[in-house]
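Q&A log
Question type: sequence-to-structure
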Amino acid sequence: MKLKILWMYHDLMDLYGDKGNIQVLKTRAAKRGIDVTVDTCTIDEKRTPADYDLFFLGGGADHEQSLIKNDLLKRRDAIREAYDSGSAFLLICGGYQLFGAYYKDQDGHLDEGLHFFDYYTEASDRSHRCIGNIAVEASIDGETFPAVGFENHGGQTRNVDTVFARVLKGHGNTFDGGTEGFVNDQVLATYMHGPLLPKNPRIADALLRRALRRNYGSVDLEPLDDTLEEKAQEVMFRRMHVRINHEEEGK
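Response status: OK
Response body:
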C-alpha cells in the first residue's frame, strides 16, 4: 500500500513541534509496510491537493497566519476538490481556525476563512487565553478513548456542530468550554499541540486508516507495541491529576 501526504506551509505553520505529527505518521505506516511520500507546499508553490490522501496544516502565531491567509484562500477550490475526492485532513490550531467561517481579532478586524465549516473564531482578552496541558476524552470513527496535548490559543472557536472531544482538564474550543476540536468523517481539527500524535497513537492510527480509505477502502492496521507512547500519556495524566478508567476505553 502507498500513502501520499501533503504538508502545507511547513516552513511557517509548525508551532510546538507540529512536524512531529508527520514523523509519527511516517513511522507508524513504515512499520506496517506502507510506503509513504510526504510533499511540502509553501506560499506560491504549485501543488494539487487532490493528488494526496492526507492534507496536513499545522499551527502558527497570528503573524504566520496572516502571511499564508491569501495564499490559502486562493487554493480554496483546489482544497475542496481534495475534500470531495475523499482526502483526509488533519488541522492543528491555526489550521483549524482557517477552515471555519472567519477569525475576528481583538481590534474587531475580521479575516475570512475558507468557509468549509460553520464554526468561527473570535479573539479573547488575555485573561481568557486557553493555555496549558489538556486532557480529553476523544471520539473518532466510533472509538472513544483518552488523549493528551498542549493548547495555547487566544481564539475562542464557537458554533462547532460535531466536537472531537470532551475536556477532562484544560479549556478546549473556548475558555473553560468543556469541548475540544471538530471532527467529521474526513476532518480532524484540534487545538492540541505538543505535538499531538506521539503521545496519542490511537489518533495517529485513525488518521492512517482514514487516509488509506481513499484508495483501499476499510483497512485493518496491524497492532504495534505502544508501551512507550502509553507511558508518556500516563505521565501527562498524572501531572494533570486526571484519573483514567482504562476499562472504559473504547466503549
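Response note: The longest strand covers residues 130-140.
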